[in-house]
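re: that chain from earlier
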Amino acid sequence: MIKDKPFPTRLFKIGAMIFNWYMRRKFNKLIINQIEIKPNHSYLLMCNHFSFWDGPLAFYLIRQAIDKRQPLTSIKIMVMKKQMEMNKWLKYVGCFSISPGIGAIEKSLNYAAESLNEPGNLLLMYPQGNLESSHIREIKFKEGIANIIPKIKGDCQLIWCSTLTEYFESIKPTVYFDMLDCGTNHDFDFESLKEKVNQHHKNAIKKQFRFTDES
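^ sequence. v structure.
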């Protein structure tokens, strides 16, 4: 397992401010449908996995929608080990590895759960495990989430975000972040989570339609 070695928090937040300025120039609009962020919790942020931009967009969302409301002390991201071996800089922005094999997976899942024991810590995950179109109608979850959440000690808010892009009249894409409060680790049910997320994702896609009514 490759562990993260993030920059000091102060330096990281300065970098995040510069990065957010760049993101606002790169995209036409970045629109967040905000939810209430619970105080004195850790945060498990789950997003759909659809492009190279997933990481940068998630960092923008974290900074604008979570960190500004409840200041974070740590941000960690679960990444496939082969990606970290190819991009060694990833460990400096909070990434740690997960790889096939019962022992290796268990170690990474335990590390993920431990990171969420402390209030103010955030873990970013992509439960699909694979790149998919952002406009698929069903989000299929890997089992990792179900193995992490029951191990969390303390209070952890579970958050989903359906991230969608549209161009319409602009040459730059507009990004829509549709957030969903999925409760906490104390009322977690895997099947219920999947059902809530999929209904939310379908509604998020439907909101982007201008004229077509899908039955």
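Residues 190-208 form the longest helix (19 residues).
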